[in-house]
Amino acid sequence: MNLNISNTIDKKVIFEQIAAELKKQNFTIVQQDATRPWGGFFVIDENQAAVFAAKFFPHLEMDKIKITNKLSPKILVVAPDKRLSWQYHFRRAEIWKIVAGIVGVKTSSTDEEGEIQQLTPGDFIQMNKGERHRLIGLDSWGVVAEIWQHTDRENPSDEEDIVRLQDDFGR
User: Fold this and answer.
1) Rounded Cα distance, 171 and 156, in Å
2) Is residue 1 part of a domain?
3) Are 30 and 43 in contact (CB under 8 A)?
4) pTM recorded for the entire structure
5) DSSP summary character for residue 62
6) 16-30: b or e for each residue (b if 16 or more CB lie within 10 Å)?
7) How many domains does the chain have?
8) Mean pLDDT computed over 159-168
9) How far apart are CA 63 and CA 60, in angstroms?
10) Residue 144: which domain range?
11) Is residue 2 domain-resident?
């Protein structure tokens, strides 16, 4: 993605840039949320999951990442100096690839936050179901491709499948 991600760029502008890039790459955005206090996200049409995975995760084999029949492709957008909640999930694992910007990520198998890792464009990280994690915006906007690996075929994960252990925004 060719984006201007400086820390001075307006949220509306970064979301417009990402939407234009996704459309240019023929991805269908089925939901867009720029109202999150940490940034927001784009949900890509589930029917394009294989194409999304091939574009952003070419080193992964579809049959190895597709635990159930759904992958829920998304683009996360984290603002400079903002943090998503310290969280985990009961019904999904997550795979992230940094698309633009430098972001911080913390992970841990316990409720204690791990050390911050700096990830740059092209870096990849995978969190198992139940693994605690947090995405952190550093000096500029961060853009992250995400795939949800649903672990329960009968009850796929959704936005309600978030256990927040700490949240800067009181959610």
Assistant:
1) 22
2) no
3) yes
4) 0.93
5) H
6) ebbbebbeeeebeee
7) 1
8) 94
9) 9
10) 11-166
11) no
Q: Is 49 in contact with 156 (CB distance < 8 Å)? A: no
- The CATH number linked to 114 is 2.60.120.10
Order of strands across the sheet with 86-88?
117-119, 103-108, 132-137, 86-88, 163-166
Provide the CA 70 distance to its chain's centre, in angstroms.
Answer: 16
Q: Sign (positive/negative) of CA torsion 49, 2, 37, 163? A: positive
Pairwise CA distance, residues 62 & 50, whole Å? 7
pLDDT attached to residue 137? 97
Q: Is residue 101 part of a domain?
A: yes
Specify the length of the chain in residues: 171
C-alpha to C-alpha distance for 125 and 105, rounded to whole angstroms: 9
For 75-92, the pLDDT digits (tens) are 999 999 999 999 999 999
Local structure of residue 83 (DSSP, 8 states): B
What is the per-residue pLDDT for 68? 64
